[in-house]
Amino acid sequence: MTDAAEYDVVVVGAGPVGENVADRTRAAGLDTAVVEDELIGGDCSYWACVPSKALLRPAIARADARRVPGLAASVQGPLDAAAVLARRDEKVGDWKDDGQAAWLDSIGARLYRGRGRLHGPRSVSVDGPEGEHHLLTARHAVVIATGSRAVLPDLPGLTGAGAWTSREATSAQQVPERLAVVGGGVVGVEMATAWQALGSRVTLLVRGEGVLPRMEPFVGEHVVDSLKEAGADVRLGVSVAAVDRPGGHTGPVSVVLDDGAVVRADEVLFATGRAPRTDGIGLGSVGLTDGAWLDVDDTCLVRGTDWLYAVGDVNRRALLTHQGKYQARIAGAAITARAGGVPLLETDRWGAHSATADHAAVPQVVFTDPEAAAVGLSLAEAERAGHRVRAVDHDLGSVSGAGLYADGYRGRARMVVDLDREVLLGAAFVGPGVGELLHSATVAVAGEVPVERLWHAVPAFPTISEVWLRLLEAYRG
Fold it and tell me: Which segments of the protein form a coiled coil according to its record (predicted)?
């Protein structure tokens, strides 16, 4: 038996992005339903942002403390791995979503637990966990916010070998004695940092010649140097050819490289790519390709439709929770405006209904030791885009605030200046604590603040933020 119900908006996916859409549409008075087949709160809350940072925070705090005389001698021992894992479990609510479900109820959104699938235009069918069936119709919009999933490469021996993806890496209950990490992106370097600090002997295997390839090259160089100093075995320019685990999901695993070398480990993490969670959600019923990334305009409306929106990872604009939540705010405003009959949306550059920052000012922090942070375009990206640019660099270790933050502080900062308009196109930082520098850079890039005006934004003494003054002085010459 199928229960039928009608809503103004139906959101498929209740991670942070879907939750934010529901929050915006409910605040505007639109009747909203939310569909989720896993935990309310999504990957970010249970298998990504929250647990990974809970694992990394003790490692970073200890590293910072070891750089401060008078404190360093007190933190020379190993981390209490059991306590770190217990705190991680607490931060993810022991993988229970009662609180998140209660929040959805508090804003007046109706929650349907089960697998949601498009069932033709403006229609979503839901198969519940107890065999119940619902058919939901949306008067104004259906929003796809189902996120992405880790992809394992097609390698001999990998199927059935019990390899970790990001989910297992952030939820493991035991510290493996030896961990092989394949991939030099954010997940790879963050998990290498965390598990090395927790006591694993980590081998990081990277196909390219550096890590964090979307950031400035010097950022990855600092991160690699630090991982090596911490005891990790970092191998660049290598590829995995096969995996051999005779015991199936348990026991030692051998990672065979393309040059014949073998890395032996107790667990292997593959952090080698993501795919959209759009397979099996009925895209074919509305003329779209099952399992595909969804192409959207700047209001997050799926091109070729006037009712289907895609926010977060599924549209591939920026696979970051904070950008997905930003898109959710934009989409929520656009849905509300269109439902209210607004004839002309603010879709001009930086308009209220335009996710312009996805193109120009995407910020990201990587919580390694040292931290890495960047916003906007790198120097290489700016040059490829045809801008006439100048990169201005400064040694963060020479900034007085950095010297007080930690003895022997090592880091670097760069701003990329558009010489024709004299505004920042991008900025990048690497060093302890630099994540807190990023929002000022994001404001400068998103706001297109002229360099001559940035000169009057005075950084407080003695903080690491003084690097802004040094960068501007170097630019002025």
Answer: none
